[in-house]
């Protein structure tokens, strides 16, 4: 038994040594890539691995505004480029493109946690597959400017504010507007620091912003996502849990009750019934087609937020719901409204007013957005 263990250890050592030799890296040169019609030139570093020329697939993806996704379970690498998808098998010569199989000059390999493709893929394969978008001009690659469809700008909308306190706690008299703002500010920090996206807020302090202004703000800044942050309330003080809404006709009595609660700000603080009629008239002239295109993605975003928030806070999962919120009307991007818990419930009110719990809420909402962004970016790039 001891001799077998020794032999196995020796074998592992030999394999590691062989791999270190095979994956010996030597930086050789760089390949110039220019965007047609511009003076912009990028350099793709060429490295020699086992006497063969390779490049880092992530570096290429950054230049081409492409998206790379690793699926470790089936040992596949997905490259989404120019609205098309490549599927590579790790450490294999073969890849799939438009349901056809192709062969690389050398296999896709990994070193130092990075995946590399042979130089031939960019100098010969891409010009062949994308004749109208990629060409080889001497030693320079000329490409058509790629379109960046990824999520870059997110608008966070802390509900209520100023003269509109939102829901008020029954026991501790906590104000919804304060909870919403605190969580939103922390969420902004996470998104900027960890995802590097541009985050804008409809309010950063205690001031009143009309529902129409909130949606207008998101549209004018061409937001890719619109996240409304709210705290729930109910006449039934035992009601508790998290729920996420996206725009549609309310399907349940409870959903209609929340819809009425959130929309009541118009009549209470924005000019009464006349203001309500203006919102209803506006709904008729908005482009239903533009909003309909985002409903599926809004549902997907709501699902990610619901799953992550409930898992991270151990809150009751009240599900994904639909409602005709004024604040979501006319938002021409995936848009959701998060109800983080019931401030009318004495137990949840104490949680919602706790700073550490607010940070946990922000973190779990962030994780939901991050999960959605990774999938959305891949789909939009494919």
Helix fraction?
A: 40-55%
The biggest beta sheet, please? 7 strands, mixed
Low-pLDDT segments, ≥5 res: 5-23, 281-290
Q: What average pLDDT do the residues reach? A: 83
Number of DSSP helical runs: 10
Strand percentage:
25-35%
Strand order of the largest sheet: 9-10-3-2-1-12-11
Radius of gyration over all CA atoms, rounded: 26 Å
Would you tell me the structural class of the helices and strands? alpha/beta
The rounded distance between the terminal residues' Cα atoms is 53 Å
Name the shape in a single word.
Answer: elongated
Count of beta strands: 18
Order of helices and strands: HEEEHEEEEEEEHEEEHEHEEHHHEEHH
Concise description?
The protein has 382 residues and is α/β, with parallel strands linked by helices. It contains ten helices and 18 strands. Helix 4 crosses helix 10 and helix 6 packs across helix 7 (272-285).
Describe the protein in words.
The chain is elongated and about 70 Å long. The strands form 3 sheets. Strands 9-10-3-2-1-12-11 form a 7-stranded mixed beta sheet. The chain has a 6-stranded mixed beta sheet with strand order 14-13-15-18-16-17, sandwiched between helices. A 5-stranded antiparallel beta sheet has the order 4-5-6-7-8, with helices on both faces. It has helices at 2-22, 57-64, 119-129, 176-195, 211-220, 253-269, 272-285, 288-313, 346-352, 355-381, and strands at residues 25-35, 41-49, 52-56, 67-71, 76-81, 84-89, 94-97, 100-103, 109-111, 114-118, 134-137, 140-143, 153-158, 198-201, 225-232, 242-247, 317-323, 335-342. The protein is of the alpha/beta class and 382 residues long. The longest helix has 27 residues, at 355-381. The protein contains 10 helices and 18 strands. Strand 4 and strand 5 form a beta hairpin.
């Amino acid at each position: 038994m001891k001799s077998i263990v020794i032999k196995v250890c020796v074998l592992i050592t030999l394999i590691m040594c062989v791999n270190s030799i095979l994956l010996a890296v030597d930086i050789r040169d760089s390949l110039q890539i220019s965007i047609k019609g511009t003076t912009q030139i990028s350099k793709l570093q060429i490295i020699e691995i086992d006497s063969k020329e390779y490049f880092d697939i992530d570096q290429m993806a950054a230049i081409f505004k492409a998206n790379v996704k690793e699926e470790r379970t089936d040992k596949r690498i997905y490259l989404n480029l120019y609205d098309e998808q490549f599927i590579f098998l790790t450490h294999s010569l073969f890849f799939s493109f438009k349901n056809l199989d192709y062969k690389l000059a050398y296999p896709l390999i990994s070193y130092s946690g990075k995946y590399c493709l042979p130089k031939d893929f960019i100098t010969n394969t891409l010009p062949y597959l994308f004749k109208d978008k990629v060409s080889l001009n001497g030693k320079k690659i000329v490409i058509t400017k790629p379109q960046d469809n990824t999520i870059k700008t997110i608008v966070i909308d802390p509900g209520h504010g100023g003269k509109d306190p939102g829901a008020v706690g029954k026991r501790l008299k906590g104000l919804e507007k304060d909870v919403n703002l605190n969580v939103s500010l922390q969420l902004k920090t996470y998104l900027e620091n960890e995802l590097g996206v541009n985050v804008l807020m409809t309010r950063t302090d205690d001031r009143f912003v009309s529902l129409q202004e909130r949606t207008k703000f998101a549209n004018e800044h061409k937001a890719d996502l619109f996240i409304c942050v709210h705290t729930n309330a109910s006449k039934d003080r035992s009601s508790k849990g998290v729920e996420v809404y996206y725009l549609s006709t309310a399907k349940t009595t409870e959903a209609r009750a929340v819809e009425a609660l959130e929309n009541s700000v118009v009549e209470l603080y924005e000019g009464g019934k006349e203001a309500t009629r203006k919102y209803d008239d506006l709904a008729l002239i908005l482009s239903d087609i533009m909003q309909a295109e985002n409903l599926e993605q809004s549902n997907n975003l709501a699902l990610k937020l619901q799953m992550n928030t409930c898992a991270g806070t151990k809150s009751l999962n009240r599900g994904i719901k639909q409602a005709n919120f004024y604040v979501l009307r006319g938002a021409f991007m995936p848009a959701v409204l998060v109800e983080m818990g019931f401030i009318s419930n004495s137990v949840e009110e104490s949680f919602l007013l706790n700073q550490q719990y607010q940070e946990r809420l922000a973190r779990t909402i962030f994780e939901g957005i991050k999960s959605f962004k990774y999938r959305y970016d891949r789909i939009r790039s494919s």
